[in-house]
# Entry
Amino acid sequence: MDIIEKIQKLPEAKRKLILWTIVIVLGLTLLFFWSKKVQNKLGNFETEQIKENLDLPNLETPDFNMPETNYEAEE
# Structure
């Protein structure tokens, strides 16, 4: 408990600095582990199986046969 008492006796600015340093370090650590877990889960997806399970309709782009236009400048 000696460490806690020393921290309590420090000025408020130093205590806030210690608090925010601890919060940032813990936040970055948790973010690192979360991103690794998400990356691992995304890597395990089997896209073909998911497409089959969703049974999405085949969408094709229409074929636009536009006549060619040649505009010549009139002088």
Helices lie at 2-9, 12-43, 47-54. Residues 2-54 form one domain.
